[in-house]
Amino acid sequence: MDTAIGTVYKPERVNLHNGWTGWIYREWKLPPELIRKWDSLSLTPGDTGIFISYGWFDLWWRAFGAGKQLFLVILKNAEDIKAIFPCCITAPAAGGSEGAAISSMTNTHTCYYSFLIEPSVLREALSGFLELLLKYAPHSQVRLEYLSEFRDTASTLTSELKHHKFPYYHHTQPWAPWTKCSGDWTAFHDNLPGRLKNTLRRYRKKAGTQGTLHFEAIERNEKLDDILNIVFDVEYNSWKGRNGTAVKCQAEVEQFYRQLAHWAMGRNHLLLFILYLDNSPIAADFCLSFGHTVFLLKPGYNESFHYISPGNLLRFEVFDYLYKKQELRTYDFLGACDAWKMEWTQTCNRYGSIKIYPKSLQGWGEYMFQYGWKDFLKKFRTARKVKSWLDRRGN
Taking a C-beta distance cutoff of 8 angstroms, is the pair 83, 125 a contact? Predict the structure, then answer.
């Protein structure tokens, strides 16, 4: 999956302040030294770094890059690569109000996104990125998604946006519930909500009257594609299949997850879990492990067996399995804080998105039209509350 040997591509150069330079790649043909630096910088955020590694973006671009233009920005200082900004130019949405924009290389199959920056130059690099935008694309919007609010990148970027007087909108929400999967298994089980424990007890008993439950954990298999057929079929035989959101419903999505599975297995990052009732697969999870964390990318269950809550039965077996593996300490559900996830944990991360408008009269106008009036009303309501409180204190 690496860049083609012997292919030479010259990126566009943009001179920046204090000896910094920007380099814009328009084709996915990257030199080996850039790829090595990319994977080195991807380790900075910890276990979530798997989702900003070169391998992840390489697979993502091959599956979802159609209809987009690459806008990969590299920042150097004294000829040393200091930061990588994986972006692309997205076309206007059909029938929507949003026009073309410089966007993060993200979509609904993204788990986490961030720029790759040496921590010692975080603020300088973000300032350089904004300077490059002003010089190279002064009339473009920038849309960034799936940013962790517990990392310095998002907060430092908003600080730099304020400093450089860019109009921008920053939205955050709870995201990616997680729980520990190490320590005392009995304590973990005892601390589960009573309703969930009763559900597990009742449906395990009910499943026992229908056949024998069998749990399988797969990290490596020579017939991986056959295993993936089972995993994807299970997910398809549910509401996801009816709604057209299952992996099998779109060729590029299935391509992405199949290639991701092979890539991850080759690096010992793949974890597939399947629960059978006799010979029938009734629930399956597509997971990745990296560092000390297991990430749940694609859960699924066969709706024909809904009467025994196969998803919950599988989740119980997964936690029992993970608690026995000392190297794994955290289970990340990823995605929205759905009710079924919050039955297993009360802890979640916080992710956000940032929309940057052009630093121009038109850009400020677009910002005010879409978001600025909301901020004004919030400030106005706050001011009225403060005045009311002061009036009461005066009396």
Answer: yes
Rounded distance, CA 41 to CA 116, Å? 6
- Residue 118's φ and ψ, nearest 5 degrees, are -60, 125
CB 212 within 8 A of CB 278: yes
CA-to-CA distance for 328 and 321, rounded, in angstroms? 10
What is the C-alpha R_g of the chain? Answer: 24
CB 118 within 8 A of CB 83: yes
Residue 6 lies in a domain: no
Prediction pTM value: 0.91
Domain count, the chain: 2
Domain, as residue range, for 242: 182-328
CA dist 212 → 159, 193, 237 (Å): 57, 26, 21
Cβ contact 120:90 at 8 Å: no
Q: In terms of domains, do 154 and 270 share one? A: no
Structure tokens, 281 = 């697969």
Amino acid at 145: E
300 burial (CB, 10 Å; 0-12 / 13-18 / 19+) is: buried
Report the C-alpha gap between 268 and 262 in whole angstroms: 10
User: Terminus-to-terminus CA distance in the chain, angstroms?
Assistant: 73
Residue 65's Cβ-count burial label (10 Å; 0-12, 13-18, 19+) is middle
HEC string for 72-115: EEEEEECCEEEEEECEEEECCCCCCCCCCEEEECCCCCCCCECC
- What is the C-alpha separation between 340 and 219, in angstroms, rounded? 25
173-231 pLDDT, tens per residue? Answer: 999 999 999 999 999 999 999 999 999 999 999 999 999 999 999 999 999 999 999 99
Considering the domain architecture, whether residues 281 and 190 belong to the same structural domain is answered as yes
How many Cβ atoms are within 10 Å of 192's Cβ, its own excluded?
A: 17
- The predicted-structure confidence for 344-376, as pLDDT tens digits, reads as follows 999 999 999 999 999 999 999 999 988 876 665
CA distance 381 to 379: 6
